[in-house]
Amino acid sequence: MKTATFYLISPDSRQAHPEGFREYVLFLAQYFARQGAKIYLNCHHRDEAELFAELFWQVPAETFLAHNLVGEGPKNGTPIEIGYPQVSASRNRQIVINMAENKTTFADRFTEVIDFVPCEKNARQLARERYKIYRQNGYKLQTIEIAYP
Prior knowledge:
Blueprint: E1 3-8, H1 18-34, E2 39-42, H2 46-57, E3 67-69, E4 80-83, E5 95-98, E6 112-117, H3 121-136, E7 140-145
Parallel strand pairs: 1-6, 1-7, 2-4, 2-5, 3-4, 5-6
């Protein structure tokens, strides 16, 4: 069964700030990739995708994982692929970590979706709309409050 997990970001958490949120996304991507999953990071736009690609290069050597932007990298891909709504993920990805505010029409290609419920009112409403879309498409849904320092 397909699953969608929404991580709730509280206003007083480190993840409510851009730097803390990016660190948490890196943590999640590394966590799932180390378990053998092929991850797709769906960023808001190309600039954010390029920023995440650069952030993966800056992690300590012992936690480094191969990654690439969509259309780059080896033929069979790396554990982590990074893109944005205007490009398509490789077909061999199991998990998408969605940071974009789009309508999730892409999500049915993945067995697991990771999404976020931000603090900002408009972004929170968009997350609710994505939640409804996942529910209508038969995803098993769960929410988790972020408990990451």
